[in-house]
């Protein structure tokens, strides 16, 4: 019950008690008057005791009212304190909501900036690739117009000459008037034509064999009993026994075998101790140029069809654009889609019984040469950071990013370098 309700109940009880006391006093006074002097003394005593009872009741009521008043004052203080606390909490909540709103606005602004940066990087990369591809298409050699690689225009002219004199001599024979001069001339034209064909074949084969870029093609030609078309993927047999039809179904079957779906439930690895972040210096044009010039010129390119020789030949023109792309990619933490898209080439696994199964083939992924150059730059930096800051344990052996032999640690590498420097100084002093 609330204090106000308790006060009202107490007042009602007080009124009822006062009314009862007054009624008793009035009754006893009337009785004293009617009876006379005989009962005057006893009624007077009774009236006095009733008055004292009412007085004591009034005193208790007043004490109760005073106590309830004190409780009301305490309650008022507590309500006031709680009101102040609520006002403070409201102000704090308002401030927190304002801060959160500001943070949300800031996050939205940053997200917009990141998205714009990604779009800008993607746009620059697309423009760079399109311009480079156009230049490469303009400068690359056109495919030979003949079905046979060794054929030339001179052979075409000799074949036309040989065909003409052969037809002339044949027409005379059919007419029953053979002419020895025409027959001899046709034979000479035939000999000259066939001699030049054999000479051209030999010359083209010598050039083909001496070209280091054709070494694996030459191996295929030299192996006895090897069919040049064995690398083509045959119709594949699925797990349910059905056979693929067309290249589309073959590609789907190979991709599902090469890259199976991830498990639905992957357990988290949990938190691991983290090292302090290592500051990396700004990207320089020199380190990019070193990796461009060290790349193999004619290694198989990715989906864009641009080998490393393109970047080597055009480096004086595109170097600043390439540096801008690489620097933006590292700063924004974004890799262009063209650099992450691989061209998958299926190769036979050796010594398999049935090549109609997708698991008898293995994939190789051909990536963009420009993206691989950036990977080489980052790998060089990681290799330096690992050595300079001692990021690997002392008992680590092998798997050096610089291509050390198996079983050789960073410590042994440093000792070898130190001995080399000492030997050089000793030879110079001698």
Automatic annotation (TrEMBL):
Stretches of the chain forming a coiled coil according to its record: 100-134
Keyword Coiled coil: yes
Comp. bias intervals (Polar residues): 1-16
UniProt keyword terms in alphabetical order: Coiled coil
Keyword match Coiled coil: yes
Domain of life: Eukaryota
Segments for region (Disordered): 1-53
Compositional bias (Basic and acidic residues): 38-49
Name of the protein in its database record: Reverse transcriptase domain-containing protein
């Amino acid at each position: 019950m609330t204090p106000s309700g308790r006060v009202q109940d107490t007042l009602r009880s007080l009124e009822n008690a006062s009314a009862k006391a007054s009624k008793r006093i009035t009754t006893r006074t009337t009785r004293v008057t009617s009876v006379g002097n005989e009962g005057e003394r006893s009624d007077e005593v009774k009236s006095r005791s009733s008055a004292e009872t009412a007085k004591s009741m009034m005193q208790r009521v007043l004490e109760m009212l005073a106590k309830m008043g004190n409780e009301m004052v305490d309650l008022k203080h507590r309500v006031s304190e709680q009101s102040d606390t609520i006002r403070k909490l409201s102000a704090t909540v308002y401030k927190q909501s304002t801060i959160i709103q500001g943070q949300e606005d800031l996050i939205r602004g940053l997200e917009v900036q990141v998205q714009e940066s990604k779009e800008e990087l993607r746009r620059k990369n697309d423009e760079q690739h399109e311009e480079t591809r156009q230049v490469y298409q303009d400068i690359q050699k056109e495919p030979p117009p003949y079905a046979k690689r060794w054929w030339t225009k001179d052979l075409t002219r000799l074949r036309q000459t040989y065909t003409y004199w052969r037809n002339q001599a044949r027409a005379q024979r059919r007419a029953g008037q053979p002419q020895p001069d025409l027959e001899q001339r046709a034979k000479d034209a035939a000999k000259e034509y066939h001699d030049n064909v054999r000479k051209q074949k030999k010359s083209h084969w010598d050039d083909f064999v001496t070209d280091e870029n054709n070494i694996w093609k030459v191996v295929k030609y030299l192996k006895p009993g090897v069919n040049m078309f064995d690398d083509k993927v045959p119709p594949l047999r699925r797990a349910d026994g059905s056979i693929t039809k067309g290249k589309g179904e073959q590609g789907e079957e190979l991709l599902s075998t090469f890259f199976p779906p991830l498990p639905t439930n992957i357990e988290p690895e949990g938190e691991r101790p983290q090292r302090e972040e290592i500051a990396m210096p700004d990207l320089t044009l020199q380190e990019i140029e070193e990796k461009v010039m060290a790349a193999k010129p004619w290694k198989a390119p990715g989906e864009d069809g641009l080998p490393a020789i393109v970047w080597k030949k055009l480096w004086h023109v595109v170097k600043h654009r390439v540096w801008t792309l690489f620097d933006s990619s590292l700063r924004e933490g974004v890799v262009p889609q063209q650099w992450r898209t691989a061209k998958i080439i299926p190769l036979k696994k050796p010594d398999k019984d049935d090549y109609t199964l997708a698991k008898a083939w293995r994939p190789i992924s051909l990536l963009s040469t420009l993206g691989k150059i950036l990977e080489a730059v980052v790998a060089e930096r990681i290799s330096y950071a690992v050595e300079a800051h001692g990021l690997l344990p002392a008992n680590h052996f092998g798997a050096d990013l610089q291509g050390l032999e198996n079983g050789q640690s960073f410590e042994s590498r440093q000792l070898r370098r130190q001995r080399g420097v000492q030997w050089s100084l000793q030879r110079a002093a001698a």
